[in-house]
């Protein structure tokens, strides 16, 4: 840790993080105390404050543990999320074109169901390069914006070059899964990930090769060493980070803003949309920074291709 945390700030931030978790309980429908008024004013005030900010959830899924489209909309309504950028990556190593087409169909039908609330992101597996490029055409024709990749190949694998070049032509961001690698949980945890998992250095490499491309380093709160990742990505201006993940460890967002700047940090929910919201209120941010991270930064990414929210 490069930051000394005073006991006072630790207690203040812990209280807010806990509020975030309680907010999560309320969001998940386990408790509606905060909304019914029977809980403390403190929590009610937090919910009012939460809803005051426009939000784009830059990392959301359908068909993973959050559930179906209605479940994602339910989370969004409770947290005041205007737009959720949804995808359904193939999360197994043995994928197939049939599987990623099926997953993209799922996303396209969710967007058709809630066109004002969802932006659909396509997924492919570059191992099937030709089929992936064809699938991207099909998805873009159907209105999908952006690409979500998993860990079948690294972000800087040459198999991805034509796919990245297509995203550059379309001005679309590429959201890539990242993993613990160097982890705080224990060295044995990292061995669960395959060698094809993208680590921060892989993002640095590909961002340098394609400076016109936009990359989103997934879930800074996903269990990886976020200090290490932020330091590694510091000089890669075309790499954004989203703050999703179940790790609401103190100081993640402030550290990211300090090292990457306030324009490269994005609110994201991934499998637990409430944790990121809670973390956003435990972070020490000014109004402008909160507005940027919750909404403006991602909308600026969308703006580059003309897909933004008005
Ligand atoms: Zn994800």
TrEMBL record:
**Top-level taxon in the UniProt lineage:** Bacteria
Pfam families linked to this entry: Amidohydro_2
A molecular-function term among this protein's GO annotations:
carboxy-lyase activity
Instruction: Tell me where in this chain the Amidohydrolase-related domain is found.
Output: 99-270
Keyword hit for Transmembrane = no
Which Gene Ontology BP annotations are present? secondary metabolic process
Alphabetical UniProt keywords: Lyase
Any Gene Ontology CC annotation: cytoplasm
Among PANTHER family, the record links this protein to: 2-AMINO-3-CARBOXYLMUCONATE-6-SEMIALDEHYDE DECARBOXYLASE, ISO-OROTATE DECARBOXYLASE (EUROFUNG)
According to UniProt, the name of this protein is Amidohydrolase-related domain-containing protein
The taxonomy runs: Bacteria, Pseudomonadati, Balneolota, Balneolia, Balneolales
């Amino acid at each position: 840790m490069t930051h000394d945390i005073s006991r006072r700030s630790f207690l203040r931030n812990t209280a807010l993080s806990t509020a975030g978790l309680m907010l999560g309980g309320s969001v998940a429908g386990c408790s509606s105390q905060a909304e019914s008024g029977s809980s403390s004013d403190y929590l009610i005030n937090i919910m009012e404050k939460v809803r005051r900010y426009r939000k784009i959830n830059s990392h959301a899924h359908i068909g993973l543990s959050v559930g179906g489209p209605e479940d994602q909309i339910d989370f969004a309504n409770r947290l005041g999320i205007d737009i959720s950028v949804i995808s359904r990556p193939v999360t197994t190593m043995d994928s197939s074109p049939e599987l990623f087409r099926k997953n993209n169909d799922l996303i396209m039908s969710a967007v058709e169901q809630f066109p004002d609330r969802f932006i659909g992101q396509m997924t492919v597996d570059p191992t099937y390069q030709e089929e992936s490029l064809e699938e991207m055409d099909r998805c873009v024709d159907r209105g999908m914006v952006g690409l979500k990749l998993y860990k079948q190949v690294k972000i800087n694998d040459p198999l991805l070059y034509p796919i990245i070049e297509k995203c550059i032509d379309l001005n679309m961001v590429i959201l890539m899964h990242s993993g613990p690698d160097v982890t705080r949980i224990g060295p044995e945890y990292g061995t669960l990930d395959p060698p094809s998992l993208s680590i921060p250095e892989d993002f640095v490499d590909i961002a340098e090769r394609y400076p016109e491309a936009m990359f989103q380093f997934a879930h800074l709160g996903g269990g990886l060493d976020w200090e290490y990742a932020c330091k590694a990505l510091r000089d890669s201006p075309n790499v954004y980070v989203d703050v999703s993940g179940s790790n609401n460890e103190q100081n993640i967002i402030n550290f990211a803003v300090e090292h990457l700047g306030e324009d490269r940090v994005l609110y994201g929910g991934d499998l637990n949309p409430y944790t990121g919201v809670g973390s956003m209120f435990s972070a020490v941010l000014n109004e402008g920074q909160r507005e940027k991270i919750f909404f403006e930064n991602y909308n600026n990414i969308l703006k580059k291709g003309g897909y933004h929210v008005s």
